[in-house]
Amino acid sequence: MKTIRIIGTTAALLLAGGMIAGGLQAQGQAKGHDKQQAKQDQQQAKQQAKQVQQQAKQQQVVTRQVQQQRIVEQRQRETQYRQVLTTQVRAAQQRTAQLQQQKRAAQNAAQQQYLVNLRQQQQRLQATRDYARDPAFSARPAYLYRRAGTQYQTTQYGADVLRQAVNYGYQQGVQFGQADRRDGQRSDYQNAYAYQDANYGYDARYVSQTDYNYYFREGFRRGYPDGYGSSQQYGTVSNGSPSILSSILSSILGLTAIR
């Protein structure tokens, strides 16, 4: 009986030892698998990071190409607008002389102020501009808008200039409308030099002259009846400064954010 018990005990010990060894071996294999999986995950993360860097680098090159093209277009606009502005200043001087002969004092005063602004624009265009550091030329398109049945894109900077065009147009419309009323003239916004010229405040930046002229006139033809009729149908007056209503401004521009 003792011999049998000793043999049974020995077998149990051997079995337990085998189980422990097997467990240790399994643990070693699991650890090896975890290390291998961690290594694979690390390599995959490096590959993904490399791909992201490559994509960012490619996108940066595209951005520089777009930036350079925009700068070229900007300089072309400036050159063309300098020539246009010289002609428009001369025409504004002629209109001023006509108003003086016609003794239209209020309209002449508004015209004089408009002429001063055009001359200031000429001076600003003579300044040297460092477009390489201007963030507007590397900015992504932010808005869509439609003019004359054609859809266009513009950046946030371009959208700000279009808003400025409408606001300036409204303000000048109010002034020229008031001037015609004071001079006893009939209501005719299209006869105003400011409407015909439509370059007030434009410095050839970020948008075309055609777009600026269009939206300036849209503001002007709403400001003129408010000024002529001493009403506030399209805008308000704060501290003597007229401003177009934000709802009217939004409806004129029709900007749609690019998602």
Low-confidence runs: 1-16, 55-62
Mean pLDDT across all residues, rounded? Answer: 83
Q: What multimeric state do the chains show? A: single chain
Distance between the termini: 88 Å
The major pleated sheet works out as: 3 strands, antiparallel
Order of helices and strands: HHEEHHHEEHE
Number of helices: 6
How are the elements arranged and paired?
Blueprint: H1 2-101, H2 105-125, E1 143-147, E2 150-154, H3 156-182, H4 193-197, H5 209-228, E3 235-238, E4 241-244, H6 246-253, E5 256-257
Antiparallel strand pairs: 1-2, 1-5, 3-4
Describe the protein in words.
This protein is mainly alpha-helical and 259 residues long. It has helices at 2-101, 105-125, 156-182, 193-197, 209-228, 246-253; strands at residues 143-147, 150-154, 235-238, 241-244, 256-257. Strands 2-1-5 form a 3-stranded antiparallel β-sheet. A two-stranded antiparallel sheet has the order 3-4. The longest helix has 100 residues, at 2-101. It is elongated. 26% of the residues are buried. Residues 1-16 and 55-62 have low confidence and may be disordered.
